[in-house]
TrEMBL record:
<dbReference type="InterPro" id="IPR036721">
    <property type="entry name" value="RCK_C_sf"/>
</dbReference>
<feature type="domain" description="RCK N-terminal">
    <location>
        <begin position="6"/>
        <end position="122"/>
    </location>
</feature>
<dbReference type="GO" id="GO:0008324">
    <property type="term" value="F:monoatomic cation transmembrane transporter activity"/>
</dbReference>
<dbReference type="Pfam" id="PF02080">
    <property type="entry name" value="TrkA_C"/>
</dbReference>
<dbReference type="InterPro" id="IPR006037">
    <property type="entry name" value="RCK_C"/>
</dbReference>
<dbReference type="InterPro" id="IPR050721">
    <property type="entry name" value="Trk_Ktr_HKT_K-transport"/>
</dbReference>
<dbReference type="GO" id="GO:0006813">
    <property type="term" value="P:potassium ion transport"/>
</dbReference>
<dbReference type="InterPro" id="IPR036291">
    <property type="entry name" value="NAD(P)-bd_dom_sf"/>
</dbReference>
<protein>
    <submittedName>
        <fullName>Potassium transporter</fullName>
    </submittedName>
</protein>
<dbReference type="InterPro" id="IPR003148">
    <property type="entry name" value="RCK_N"/>
</dbReference>
<dbReference type="Pfam" id="PF02254">
    <property type="entry name" value="TrkA_N"/>
</dbReference>
<feature type="domain" description="RCK C-terminal">
    <location>
        <begin position="138"/>
        <end position="220"/>
    </location>
</feature>
Length: 220
């Protein structure tokens, strides 16, 4: 297989989501080709991305003329127009892109995108909604779930873990979660070790199955 020639990324649809993706990629030092059919948005992004083009991305021939067949990574950030989103993924798949990411607005939309050739489908609204649900009760300060029901979270150290080392409180045996690190006020994050001593007010960074993380965060 040929070597990857470039880590340029095409971002198609420069709305709120696509714009945020494109902006972050630029900050990370990537070349970004932004495409949108809306002239105003193209204008808005013109000097913020490496290249910005006004085009209808559902047209494979147009995409080829833009050199999209030489790019590996594309993010299809068209949301509300499901037909345009699906046709764009199809066009990119026909051009042979190796890494197509697409934003879905719902479960069925996501399924269609997968079957059309998207390699990764993201559900930003559903994912953020779930995250907020975990945060709103105040038990978790941060929560990130991976696809397979495995999560990482930040939560206050429960009473049973205070004034002892992690090996003494034995949280992994008792609760099925692993303490990855500890954040103490006015101190740097430290990686958790067996002899790490937990003090009142410490914040634990824990990982484990989502249901066990939820139970652990609910402890007083
Ligand atoms: P968000 O909620 O992230 O703002 P939208 O669905 O509102 O997402 O925005 C998607 C963007 O995709 C819009 O700026 C729209 O102009 C653009 N877009 C829609 N259809 C096409 C298309 N066929 N080709 C290129 N850009 C498109």
């Amino acid at each position: 297989k040929p070597p990857i020639q470039s880590d340029s990324v095409a971002v198609i649809g420069l709305g709120r989501f696509g714009g945020a993706v494109a902006e972050s990629l630029m900050r990370m030092g990537h070349e970004v080709l932004g495409i949108d059919s809306n002239a105003e948005l193209v204008q808005k992004w013109a000097d913020r991305l490496t290249h910005v083009v006004q085009a209808d991305a559902t047209d494979a021939e147009v995409l080829r003329q833009l050199g999209m067949n030489h790019i590996q990574h594309a993010v299809v950030a068209i949301g509300s127009d499901i037909e345009a989103s699906v046709l764009t993924v199809l066009a990119l798949e026909e051009l042979g892109l190796r890494d197509i990411w697409a934003k879905a607005t719902g479960t069925r939309h996501g399924l269609i995108l997968e079957r059309t050739g998207a390699h990764h489908v993201v559900h930003p609204e559903a994912a953020m909604g779930e995250r907020v649900a975990h945060l709103v009760t105040g038990k978790m300060m941060d929560f990130l779930e991976f696809e397979d029901g495995f999560a990482i979270a930040k939560t206050r150290a429960p009473d049973e873990s205070l004034e002892k080392t992690l090996s003494e409180s034995n949280l992994r045996q008792k609760h099925g979660i692993t303490v990855v690190g500890i954040k103490r006020r006015h101190a740097d994050f430290i990686y958790a070790q067996a002899d790490t001593y937990v003090e009142p007010g410490d914040i634990l960074v824990i990982s484990g199955p989502t249901n066990l993380i939820e139970k652990f965060a609910a402890l007083e």
